[in-house]
Structures are given as C-alpha cells and as structure tokens.
Amino acid sequence: MAYDSPMADTWREHIKKTAAWTIRALLVALVTAPAITLLAAMIAFASRIRHTHPWIILLIPFGAVATTYLFSVLGPHLQQGSLRIMSLISKSEAEMDGSGAVSFTTDVASQERPISTRLAPLLLVTTFITHLVGASGGKEGVGVQVGSSLASYIGEAESRLRHRTFPLHHQGVYLISGAAAGFAALFNAPVAGVLFGLQFSNPRVNRIDAFFPALVAAYSATMLSQAMHIPIIETVAPETLPFTAHTLLILLLVAILFGLLSRLFCTLIYQVRHLTARLTDNVYLRTLFTSTLLLGASLAIYLAVGSFEFNGLSTHLIKEAGLGSAHPLAPLFKFVLTILTIASGFIGGEVVPVLVIGSTSGALLASLLGSPAATLSMMGAMGMLSGATKLPLACFALGLELYGFSNPSLLFFVCAVSYFISGPASIYRPHQ
Q1: Per-residue pLDDT at 141
Q2: Left if phi > 0, otherwise alpha if psi is -120 to 50, otherwise beta: which for 97?
Q3: Could you tell me if 430 and 270 are in contact, meaning their C-beta atoms sit under 8 angstroms apart?
Q4: CA dist., res. 150 & res. 407, Å (int)
Q5: CA–CA separation, 417 vs 260, rounded Å?
Q6: Do 224 and 29 touch, CB atoms closer than 8 A?
Q7: Mean pLDDT throughout 64-72?
Q8: Does residue 77 surpass a pLDDT of 70?
Q9: What are the Cα distances from residue 177, in Å, to 38, 97, 170, 172, 197?
C-alpha cells in the first residue's frame, strides 16, 4: 500500500490507504479481465481460421515480417513502454528489439517516458497474427503486458486527475497488480497470478506493499473472466502417488531431467538469437530467415505425421499427454517450433509452449517408467516451467490450480529440484 513509514501510520490511515488500493486494484481487474477475454477470443478465432484453411501456415514468413514492421514503425514509444513494464516487474532491465522480442539492458533512461496507449492494442494484433499463421506461441506474455499496460494507464490517469507526479513505487505496484490480474485471468489461477507478479517483481518495489493490490486484482480478474467464459486449459486429474523413498527417487530423476531440459530450452533461445544476429544487421532479413526455417520445420512435421497440430497453442496436447495418447515425438516437435517462433520475433509468450513440452515429455517418461501418465505429465509440465521461468512457487501454485491438489508435497519437490538444476538461464533473463 505504498507506506512511507508503516509503523508510524495510524490505524485510520492504514484503513484509508487499504481502501484506496482496493479501489485501484478493482479498477485494474475491471479493465484487464475484458481485455484478456478479448485476447483469448482473438486467439480462438485465429486458430479456427487456420484449422479451416491450413494453407495459411504458408504465411508464417509474412506474419513474422509484418510483426517486425509494426514494432519498428510504431516502435520507440511502444518499445520503451515494454522496457518500463519489464524493468519494474522483473529483476533485470529489459527492452524490445526491432522484432518485438524482449531483450535485456542496463539502460533505464526510457523509464521516465509514459507507456503508450497503443501498446496494448498492438500486442493484441500481433498475437492474433502469431496464432493466425500458426507460429508456436503462447498467450501469457501478452496477457501480462496487456494487464500491466492497462494498469499503468489507470495510474497515469489518477496522477493527472490529482495533479501529482506518478511515483516510481506506485508505478511498480500498479504494474505488478496488472501482471497478476492478466496471468490469473488467462489461466483461471489467482494464486499463481499473485505469486507470479510478486516473484517477478523488482527489488525497488516493496512486495509487502504490492501484495494486497495484486491479491485483489488477481482474484477479481479471475472471477470476471470466469463470468465471461474465458477458455481454460483442459487437464487430466493426476493419480495420487505414495510418499515413499521409491517415489522420491523416481521424481528426483524426473526433476533433474526437466531441469536440464529447461536449461537447454533457455540456452537455445539465446544461442539461436545470437547466431542469427551475426548473420546480418538487417532485422527484416533475420526475421525472414528464421521464419522461413519455422515454415520449413512445420511442413516437415506435417509430412511426417500428417497434421499441423503442433503449431499454434497446441493446448489439446496437454490433455492428450495426461491420457497417455500424445504423439511420442510431440515434445521434440513442439520444442523445435517454439525455439524458431521465438527467434522469429512472434508475439505471445513461452509459458504455454513450455507446458506442452513438459507435459508431453512427462507422459513419454511415464510410458518408459511404468508410472501414471497423468501424474508425470503434471510433474513434467510444472518442473520444466519452474526451471524455465525461475519462479518455482508460482509454478507450484499453477500446478495445483490447473491439475488439483492430489500431490502437493511431491509437486513442490519436483518444482524445487528442477529450479535448482536448471541453472541461471531463464526465459525472462539472459543466459549468464
């Protein structure tokens, strides 16, 4: 609640500030939930068009170049807005390159500039393009930035109405609340939304101050998105495993494997970007090159399996993994397509693709180990996500909210070990 001296505040002042931030958080939820519902509807519409007209997959290079062009032309203010969002809710400073992809820097000068009101609409449009042409993108990255940018608009409006400056601390609380609301609404996971926002917060923002607004925003946005019937990820309830030494040894192996897999995933993201950057300084040529590789990989997979089901969100694979019916090469296919999608500068996010890779890999391990597919699918999804995001508590909560509460102690064990094994690399931070 943005206290200068909490111990010195009177109880009346405490109530006043709590009420003020409750109203602010409710406003954040009221504008974020419809935007997230719109985002989900746009993704679903784009996916239906692509499924009806599969030839649209041939437009992958065009979609990548168009995304790069939009961010380059509408660029500076939008890129600086994303810099400001990422720098205030992350542990590192961030900026966006010409393709719209997030990179990291120590330049903080742009934090003084306001976030453009065009940022949220552009993110929605470019995400629509991503899923229309069949790039292997997610939705949570856009959801978080849309929620944060809308929250920032509310904060800026409040400052103008009160004829006051917009303090950096207030900005951070608003942005974290928006991020929590966006993540929670997308996944129907308010606890994970709160923990995501708080774990992902900059040390300059007091997490105690941000906790209650994030809580109100996340729970309110979740209820609103449910009322608007936002589609959610379908999962299979996992079987309960006995808490024995044998179970822990199996899950230790699983966690180590997924920690290493997430480390490989994060490392390859930056390696591919680095290699393509060395090819040419022209961002359009780089985008065209990587997106052409993405198209080639998509067509090769289609020739192998007769389907484009690994393009786009592919969330149906999470349910198939839980049922033990996912294609045995699904993890490899999704891994390759996602790396090339990120390298091509498509907008969306990495969380959903990582969940797909992890869940299908877990199901594959289950068939080899003779373990329940639904349970190892959950462990794989959350273990890999924990290693890739470096947000183990948020991933633990997300696993419980998506899959149920049958294995909380074992799920925490897998998330923790995967986080430790994965090393410093993250989808939100560069490889060290």
Answers
A1: 82
A2: beta
A3: yes
A4: 36
A5: 11
A6: yes
A7: 90
A8: no
A9: 19, 26, 11, 8, 7
CB 36 within 8 Å of CB 143 = yes
* Domain ranges in the chain with CATH number 1.10.3080.10: 6-227, 245-421
Q: What is the pLDDT of residue 200?
A: 64
Q: What is the pLDDT of residue 115?
A: 62
Question: pLDDT for 165-192, tens place per residue?
Answer: 767 778 888 989 999 999 999 999 999 9
Q: How many CB atoms sit inside 10 A of residue 162's CB?
A: 9
Beta bridge partners of 96: 102
pLDDT of residue 156: 86
Q: Tens digit of pLDDT for each residue in 131-146?
A: 999 999 998 888 888 8
Q: Which CATH class is domain 6-227?
A: mainly alpha
pTM of the model: 0.89
pLDDT in tens, 102-126: 332 233 333 445 566 677 888 899 9
Name the token pair of 211.
Answer: 């906790």
Report, in angstroms and rounded to the nearest whole number, the Rg of the chain calculated over CA atoms: 21
Q: Which CATH architecture has domain 245-421?
A: Orthogonal Bundle (1.10)
Q: What is the 3-state secondary structure (H, E, C) of the chain?
A: CCCCCHHHCCHHHHHHHHHHHHHHHHHHHHHHHHHHHHHHHHHHHHHHHHHHCHHHHHHHHHHHHHHHHHHHHCHHHHHHHHHHHHHHHCCCCEEECCCCCEEECCCCHHHHCCCCCCHHHHHHHHHHHHHHHCCCCCCHHHHHHHHHHHHHHHHHHHHHHCCCCCCHHHHHHHHHHHHHHHHHHHHCCHHHHHHHHHHCCCCCCCHHHHHHHHHHHHHHHHHHHHHCCCCCCCCCCCCCCCCCHHHHHHHHHHHHHHHHHHHHHHHHHHHHHHHHHHHCCCHHHHHHHHHHHHHHHHHHHHHHHCCCCCCCCCCHHHHHHHHCCCCCCHHHHHHHHHHHHHHCCCCCCCHHHHHHHHHHHHHHHHHHHCCCHHHHHHHHHHHHHHHHHCCHHHHHHHHHHHHCCCCHHHHHHHHHHHHHHCCCCECCECCC
pLDDT mean over 400-420: 96
Which of 66-80, 270-284, 306-320 has the least mean pLDDT? Answer: 66-80
432 vs 130, higher pLDDT: 130
Burial bucket for residue 363 (CB in 10 Å: 0-12, 13-18, 19+) = buried
Q: What is the pLDDT of residues 26-39, one digit of tens each?
A: 999 999 999 999 99
Q: What pLDDT shows up at residue 120?
A: 81
Q: Which amino acid is at 76?
A: P
